[in-house]
């Protein structure tokens, strides 16, 4: 079992995220991942720094902890050639500690370049073509590519690591789980869904299974739940909504009626390690072996201390029930 820490780029400044990455290494996390968005989910978040600059800074300020995007949409706002170059450079800066997380994106961040927002089926096709282009450029030399949606003309990435980064593909359903199996090296989800792991394996996937575990640490339960609602109520409507709303104001409106009780179901919250382990167990039972802990509590420093003293050892020893 490998345990990661989510650098919540919407909730903290770039400088604070780099500091949190350093602390994550100090207390023993195996990896950190950072979201790659243009906009925050909610206006109240107040931040949304450029993920690749943050990763470069983290690479220079840490020694052994692994880094990942969680996740990057490699088309529309970007072109996959740019992501191939960015990921290769990041891997070099951190001496091979980088994993590239890819997904089909959300309108929230991708519509900003004015290219519209394709239906999910087209986005999946674009994701497949993106991975093909990225791997082509990582193979060295000049390459061109003519796909249904994406093109590459006579391009070469000159600075390449000896071993290309792993590609982890985000999945919210069986179709994207199949993409992860056929084109990625691992799968990434945000829900404890055994059906996604099963779909990944049935399609031939045999890599790591990443998942984000929602937690909110605080000295008391009410503070933890209040903070979880303030920071993460955008997640309650689910991905079919989260992928389609265009701006923070829409998420503010869509989640206005979300209550603290709504957060209590999916979240581990409060000061007791047992409550957090119960939520982590759901993901272990579903078949995940790389758990990224997302702290929606109000005190990151307190959470790091809590992890080091009470959560680190027991969460690594979790095994599937049954």
List the main descriptive attributes of the protein structure presented here.
13 helices; single chain; alpha/beta; 43% helix; eight-stranded parallel β-barrel; TIM Barrel; two-stranded antiparallel sheet
Structure report:
This protein has 322 residues and is of the alpha/beta class. It has one domain (2-316): TIM Barrel. It is built from 13 helices and 11 strands. The protein has helices at 14-27, 51-61, 80-93, 107-110, 120-138, 174-183, 194-202, 221-232, 239-242, 248-254, 260-264, 273-286, 300-316, and strands spanning 2-7, 31-34, 66-69, 98-102, 143-146, 151-155, 166-170, 186-189, 208-216, 268-269, 290-295. The strands form 2 sheets. The protein has an 8-stranded parallel beta barrel, surrounded by 8 helices. The longest helix is centred in the middle third of the chain and has 19 residues, at 120-138. The protein is globular, with a radius of gyration of 19 Å.
- What is the helix fraction of residues, given as a range? 40-55%
Profile the largest sheet: 8 strands, parallel, barrel
Q: Which structural class best describes the helix and strand composition? A: alpha/beta
CATH superfamily: Luciferase-like domain
Tell me, rounded to a whole number, the average pLDDT: 97
Q: β content, as a range?
A: 15-25%
GO molecular function, one term: oxidoreductase activity, acting on paired donors, with incorporation or reduction of molecular oxygen
Protein name: G6PDH family F420-dependent oxidoreductase
Pfam families: Bac_luciferase
Keywords: Oxidoreductase
């Amino acid at each position: 079992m490998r345990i990661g820490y989510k650098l919540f780029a919407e909730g903290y400044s770039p400088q604070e995220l780099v500091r949190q990455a350093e602390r994550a290494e100090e207390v023993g996390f195996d990896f950190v991942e950072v979201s790659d968005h243009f906009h925050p989910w909610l206006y109240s978040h107040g931040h949304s720094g450029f993920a690749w600059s943050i990763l470069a800074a983290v690479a220079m300020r840490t020694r052994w902890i692994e880094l990942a995007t969680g996740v990057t949409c490699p088309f529309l706002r970007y072109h996959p050639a740019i992501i191939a170059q960015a990921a290769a450079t990041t891997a070099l800066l951190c001496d091979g500690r980088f994993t590239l997380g890819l997904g089909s994106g959300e309108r929230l961040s991708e519509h900003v370049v004015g290219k519209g927002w394709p239906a999910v089926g087209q986005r999946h096709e674009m994701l497949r073509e993106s991975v093909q282009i990225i791997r082509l450029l990582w193979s060295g030399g000049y390459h061109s590519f003519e796909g249904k949606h994406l093109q590459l003309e006579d391009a070469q990435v000159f600075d390449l690591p000896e071993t290309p980064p792993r590609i982890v593909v985000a999945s919210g359903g069986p179709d994207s789980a199949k993409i992860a199996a056929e084109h990625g090296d691992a799968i990434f989800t945000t829900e404890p869904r055994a059906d996604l792991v099963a779909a990944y394996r049935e399609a031939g996937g045999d890599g790591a299974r990443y998942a984000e575990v929602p937690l909110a640490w605080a000295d008391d339960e009410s503070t933890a739940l209040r903070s979880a609602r303030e920071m993460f109520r955008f997640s309650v409507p689910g991905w079919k909504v989260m992928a389609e709303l265009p701006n923070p104001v829409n998420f503010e409106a869509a989640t206005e009626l979300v209550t603290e009780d709504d957060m209590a179901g999916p979240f581990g919250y409060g000061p007791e390690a047992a409550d957090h382990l119960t939520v982590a167990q759901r993901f272990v039972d579903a078949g995940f072996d790389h758990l990224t802990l997302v702290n929606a509590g109000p005190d990151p420093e307190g959470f790091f201390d809590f992890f080091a003293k009470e959560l680190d050892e027991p969460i690594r020893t979790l095994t599937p029930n049954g």
